Task: inverse folding
C-alpha cells in the first residue's frame, strides 16, 4: 500500500516537472519573440528616420534661395503676362523626349509668344539625376537658375535652348560645369557672374524642391504640357499636339 | 521534403524583397514620388509611406532569408503583396499609366498599362510563395530552429 502511494506521487511529480518545464519553455519563447519583434521594429523606425532625414525635398526656401525672375516660385514665364493662353511645360534638361518636344514645338511656340497669342510657363524640374554619372539633371537646372538669376529671362531662354541642342546622352557623364558655363556665356551671360553660382550649386535646395512641386501638382513625368491648366496627356505626341494647337 | 521547399520559397521571396528595397534605398524621394503617383493615399502620409517601404522591404526580405520569425515575416510579406496588387489593379482600372515603382523608378510612363497584367501576375506568384512559407511552418536552415528548439517529448 505504502509502496503504491510512493509510485503515484513520483509519477505525479514527474508529470508536474514536465509541465513546469513546458511552461518555462513557452515563457522563454514569448520573451524571444517579443525581443526580436521589438528589435526589428526599432530597425525599421531608425531606417525610416534615416530615409526621411536624407530626403530634403520640400525644405522651405529662404527668399535668397529662389532665383530672381521666377513666377510662383518655380515657373519661368516667357512672353506677355496678359496673353490669352498659357502653355505650361514641365521639362528636365536630361530628358530625351523633352528634347524631342522642343524640336517639334519650339519655333512655333516662340512665334506665338512673339505674336502675343500665348505665354509659356516653363516649369523646369530635376528628377533624372540617376540618368548620368554626375547628377547632370540637377547641375543643369542649377546652372539655368543661376543664369536666370544673374542675367534675366532672355539669356535663360537661350541657355535653355542650347542645353537641349547639346543634350548629353543618358548614362553619360553629362556636360561638365565648365561646359555649362561656356554655354551660359554663349547665351549672353557674363562668366564672372555665373561661375560661382554654377560651381557652388547655389540653388541646390530650390532644384531639389522642384521634384516635390512637380509631384504635388500631379505631374509624374516630363515633358508634361498644360494648356490653360488642362493636362494634355502623358505621351509625347499629345503634348506636342496640344502645344501646337495652342500656338495656332 | 516540405521543409526544403519552404526554404526555397523563403529564399526566392526574401531575395526579391531585398533587391526591391535596396534599389530604392539610395534615393528616398524617388519612392515618395512613386507612392504619390498611385494617387491612393492622403498627401499627409505619402512621404512617410515612401520612406517606410524600402526599409520594410529589406527587413522583411532579410527575415525571410535568415528564417527569423519566419511565419510573421511571411504574413507581412503576403499582406504587402496584397496591397501592391490592389494598388496596381486600381491604377489599371482608373486608366492611370504609371511605372509601378516596384524596383525603383515610378511616375508616369506612357504605355505602362501593358505591363500591369504581368506585374500583377508576378505579385500573385510571390503572394502564393509567401503563403506557402506560412503554411509550411518549419523550414530548413532557419534561425527560428535555433531560437525555438522543440521541447523533447515524453520521458
Result:
Amino acid at each position: 500500500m505504502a509502496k503504491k502511494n510512493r509510485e503515484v506521487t513520483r509519477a505525479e511529480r514527474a508529470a508536474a516537472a514536465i509541465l513546469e518545464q513546458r511552461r518555462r519553455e513557452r515563457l522563454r519563447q514569448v520573451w524571444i519573440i517579443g525581443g526580436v519583434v521589438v528589435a526589428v521594429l526599432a530597425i525599421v523606425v531608425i531606417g525610416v528616420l534615416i530615409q526621411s532625414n536624407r530626403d530634403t525635398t520640400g525644405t522651405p526656401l529662404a527668399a535668397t534661395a529662389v532665383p530672381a525672375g521666377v513666377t510662383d516660385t518655380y515657373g519661368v514665364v516667357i512672353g506677355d503676362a496678359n496673353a490669352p493662353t498659357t502653355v505650361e511645360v514641365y521639362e528636365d534638361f536630361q530628358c530625351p523626349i523633352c528634347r524631342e518636344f522642343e524640336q517639334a514645338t519650339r519655333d512655333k511656340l516662340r512665334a506665338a509668344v512673339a505674336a502675343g497669342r500665348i505665354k509659356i510657363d516653363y516649369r523646369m524640374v530635376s528628377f533624372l539625376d540617376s540618368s548620368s554619372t554626375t547628377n547632370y539633371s540637377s547641375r543643369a537646372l542649377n546652372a539655368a537658375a543661376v543664369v536666370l538669376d544673374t542675367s534675366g529671362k532672355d539669356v535663360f531662354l537661350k541657355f535653355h535652348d542650347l542645353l537641349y541642342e547639346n543634350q548629353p546622352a543618358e548614362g553619360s557623364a553629362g556636360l561638365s560645369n565648365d561646359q555649362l558655363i561656356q554655354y551660359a556665356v554663349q547665351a549672353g551671360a557674363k562668366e564672372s557672374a555665373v561661375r560661382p553660382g554654377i560651381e557652388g550649386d547655389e540653388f541646390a535646395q530650390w532644384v531639389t524642391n522642384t521634384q516635390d512641386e512637380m509631384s504635388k501638382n500631379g505631374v509624374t513625368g516630363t515633358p508634361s504640357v498644360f494648356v490653360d491648366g488642362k493636362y494634355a496627356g502623358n505621351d509625347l505626341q499629345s503634348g506636342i499636339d496640344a502645344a501646337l494647337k495652342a500656338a495656332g | 521534403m516540405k521543409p526544403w521547399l519552404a526554404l526555397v520559397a523563403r529564399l526566392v521571396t526574401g531575395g526579391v524583397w531585398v533587391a526591391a528595397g535596396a534599389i530604392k534605398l539610395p534615393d528616398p524621394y524617388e519612392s515618395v514620388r512613386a507612392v504619390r503617383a498611385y494617387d491612393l493615399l492622403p498627401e499627409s502620409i505619402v512621404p512617410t509611406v515612401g520612406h517606410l517601404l524600402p526599409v520594410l522591404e529589406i527587413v522583411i526580405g532579410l527575415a525571410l532569408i535568415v528564417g527569423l520569425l519566419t511565419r510573421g515575416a511571411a504574413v507581412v510579406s503576403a499582406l504587402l503583396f496584397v496591397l501592391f496588387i490592389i494598388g496596381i489593379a486600381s491604377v489599371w482600372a482608373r486608366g492611370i499609366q504609371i511605372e509601378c515603382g516596384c524596383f525603383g523608378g515610378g511616375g508616369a510612363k506612357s504605355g505602362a498599362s501593358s505591363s500591369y497584367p504581368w506585374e500583377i501576375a508576378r505579385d500573385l506568384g510571390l503572394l502564393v510563395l509567401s503563403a506557402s512559407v506560412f503554411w509550411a511552418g518549419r523550414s530548413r536552415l532557419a534561425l527560428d530552429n535555433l531560437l525555438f528548439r522543440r521541447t523533447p517529448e515524453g520521458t
About this structure: The helical segments of chain B are 2-24, 28-37, 46-66, 70-94, 116-136, 143-147. Chain B has one domain: 2-142.
